[in-house]
Design the sequence.
DNA sequence: TCTACGTTTCAACGATAGTTGATATGTAGG
DNA sequence: CCTACATATCAACTATCGTTGAAACGTAGA
């Protein structure tokens, strides 16, 4: 991920409705949510949401697929992962002992309570 | 960290000059950089930089201390850690196996090549 | 205390982002 | 087909953000 992509991603996440969309999609898992459901969830008008979804998609944070009359959106976990890595990568430039707590704290999140990391 | 703080932080990082400032400060380590040095590094006018530094400080991403005539800024590693945790926290809601790759990827960053995690 | 230096604040302008309403696309069912 | 439904696109308006220049503040040395 280059700076331009990271900027787009951070800017996308720096907007109330879009941040909620991403969190809702992340929580919803790979199956995703329909645009209409998302509109109700974040309480945003459909046309407005469409604008934000396009921006999130362009930022590589979400993906979409059509399913009948609905368009299903889901979180782009790879994109989120890249963004986190981009943010944390430079913390290691000569001072790994400084950023280690951040990594350790993340490693202590609920994700590690499962056996997913050992799969 | 609540949503309002996370929004401020993401919005702050979604701006070219501010993102570069944060990365420069993160790379510089705890000793930080003077405002003037930062202005040269990111190629931004001093008064303009001051505006961005204030915003980053308000977002909890950087801290400052006066040192003689200079004001030294440094990255707020705790704030960055909180932000990463906020972004990744919800990935665990019922689907830990999905977000695990993101955590694993981050854990593979250079931070872990040192012995900082085992200190 | 006077001057020089580094940094910050302020007001104003131009550019950009977000919302809204109307309209268009695309899809399923009668 | 034609209608109903879900979503996307477009133009216009408003508000907010980022930049600039001038000026103020705080600090150190002569």
Sequence:
């Amino acid at each position: 991920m280059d700076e331009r992509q990271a900027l787009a991603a951070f800017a996308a996440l720096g907007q109330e409705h879009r941040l909620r969309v991403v969190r809702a999609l992340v929580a919803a898992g790979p199956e995703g949510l329909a645009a209409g459901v998302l509109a109700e969830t974040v309480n945003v008008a459909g046309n407005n949401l469409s604008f934000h979804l396009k921006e999130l998609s362009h930022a590589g944070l979400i993906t979409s697929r059509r399913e009948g009359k609905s368009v299903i959106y889901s979180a782009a976990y790879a994109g989120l992962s890249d963004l986190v890595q981009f943010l944390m990568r430079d913390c290691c430039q000569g001072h790994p002992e400084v950023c280690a707590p951040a990594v350790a704290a993340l490693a202590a999140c609920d994700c590690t309570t499962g056996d997913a990391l050992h799969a």
